């Protein structure tokens, strides 16, 4: 479309006069924007169009990424800043906020979702150009989608058991007792005990132990924390008890487990 400087100048003057006449209020600005959009035949995405990729992500749908790319790169996206990089970053923040909330509503642990959101926002803050902002958004959206797909194939628990597992995951750093979990969830202790074992196949205490071992595995793979630091972080009574339980569960000591995965990582990098 050819630019018409005179027409643009007249439009700006008309806008300025209109806003001045109405005191420059937000209501006046909204009215003018609606008028201009109607005159230019433009619009924003409808609510359903905007929500579609996030609903797909929530279900772990493999097509969610393509749907989000079409949405964010569409000419119907609102302009949030005259600066292209700042505009992309504002769009990223709006998108990750929706992604996080939809993921939580879809069953992702809220603390995990919020931590992911914080990590990606900090990475976004370091981006220097529009393309890198959107590339990071696709990475983030793909990660959330994959996590939600994994949730869909994981065992489906009742609301009470799901909330109890979330309580366990939030409190692995301290002593965990069934009585406290039942009190937190406002449930009868015996009822929760029977329901938890029926759905998970494990008594509460054994489930907690296995959850702590899984967390310890992640810390051994992804951090340089010592066995004593991990034992303290995950509320094991002592380092020796932690090592004994870890070996019983995995067949390796924590040190052997760390060395094995370090060697495997090196082999993968060489390939």
Write up what this structure looks like.
By secondary structure, the chain is mostly helical. It folds into three domains: 5-40; 47-153; 159-270, Homeodomain-like (Arc Repressor Mutant, subunit A, Orthogonal Bundle). It has helices spanning 5-21, 26-40, 47-58, 64-72, 84-105, 110-125, 130-153, 159-170, 178-185, 189-200, 204-222, 227-233, 239-250, 254-270. Helix 3 crosses helix 5 (84-105) and helix 5 (84-105) runs antiparallel to helix 6 (110-125). The two termini are 51 Å apart.
Q: Show unreliable segments.
A: none
Name the CATH class of the largest domain: Mainly Alpha
Number of helical regions? 14
* CATH architecture assignment name of the largest domain: Orthogonal Bundle
Following the backbone from N to C, one meets helices and strands in this order, namely HHHHHHHHHHHHHH
Helix content: over 70%
Provide keyphrases for this structure.
271 residues, 14 helices, mainly alpha, 3 domains
Summarize the structure.
By secondary structure, the chain is mainly α.
Secondary structure elements and their pairing?
Elements: H1 5-21, H2 26-40, H3 47-58, H4 64-72, H5 84-105, H6 110-125, H7 130-153, H8 159-170, H9 178-185, H10 189-200, H11 204-222, H12 227-233, H13 239-250, H14 254-270
